[in-house]
Design brief:
The protein has a domain of about 70 residues. By secondary structure, the chain is an alpha+beta fold. The chain is built from 2 helices and 4 strands; from the N terminus they run ααββββ.
């Protein structure tokens, strides 16, 4: 048999979700989702946002719901392109055989 989610069930879930931690769980999840989407768009790699709800019985007819939100977000690659000085084999920002005009790059 197929499970059908009714609009009232969705509304009840969202109301409960918004109430966990006085709204801090939903706020944290929204911020992490935005960071994950941005990182995925910039880095082109998959991100994951996980929301866990821990439910335990408190007293008769009552439950306590605790929540946590984690995110796995790709880290940006830190990189730069360099030329290689074939005499020292060290990276350099200037092409090693580039002609330098007088008065330009005197600090070199």
């Amino acid at each position: 048999m197929e499970n059908i989610v009714l609009p009232t069930q969705v509304e009840q879930f969202l109301n409960a979700f918004r109430s966990i931690g006085a709204g801090s769980l939903s706020e944290d999840a929204a911020k992490k989702m935005a960071r994950a989407i941005r990182a995925t768009m910039v880095e082109g790699k998959k991100s994951t946002v996980t929301i866990k709800l821990h439910i335990k019985s408190n007293v008769e007819d009552q439950v306590v719901i605790e929540g946590e939100c984690t995110a796995s977000i790709p880290k940006p690659k830190l990189k730069a392109a360099f030329f290689v000085d074939t005499q020292t084999f060290m990276p350099t920002r200037n092409r090693p055989n580039q002609q330098i005009l007088p008065g330009v790059n005197d600090a070199r």
